[in-house]
Design a protein that fits this description.
Blueprint (H helix, E strand, L loop, with lengths): L2 H16 L7 H11 L4 H29 L8 H13 L12 H11 L4 H23 L1
């Protein structure tokens, strides 16, 4: 596999993992690849954003599954209950902030749990993550 393809695969994998409940460092990977200049910045942005969005949607799916297994929100840990209440109160637009460290995963989980409209949620998650990665690419370009 050519070096560029390996770099893109690594970026996608890092971005995907970073947006699930597992920790990751996709921002550092993107910053390195942008500064290295081996691939067009637009390509790097697309790979990172799609990977991170798909990871977020995996967390979204976990929220849906958890809601089926534990239909009473009171059975969740207090932190998750607070996030559910926040998303329920503020609605779909909170998903623009899924790019934030730590709380972003919880927002995705809550969106799935609350069964917010899927396609608008995908768009908002994608836009938030694109904005974060665009800022990183701009800083390191």
């Amino acid at each position: 596999m050519p070096q560029t393809a390996l770099e893109l695969f690594g970026l996608f994998t890092s971005a995907f993992i970073s947006s699930t409940i597992a920790p990751g460092g996709s921002e550092a990977v993107l910053a390195y690849l942008v500064s290295a200049g081996h691939s067009p910045v637009v390509q790097l942005l697309a790979v990172a954003t799609v990977g991170n969005t798909l990871g977020a949607l995996t967390t979204w799916g976990l929220g849906i599954l958890a809601a089926k297994k534990l239909p009473l929100a009171t059975l969740l840990p207090e932190k998750r209950q607070k996030t559910l209440a926040f998303v329920s109160r503020n609605g779909l637009w909170t998903l623009l902030f899924t790019w934030l460290p730590i709380v972003g995963d919880a927002l995705c989980f809550a969106g799935g749990w609350l069964k917010l409209p899927f396609w608008p949620a995908c768009l908002l998650i994608f836009l938030g993550k694109l904005g974060r990665y665009a800022a990183i690419a701009w800083l390191f370009n």
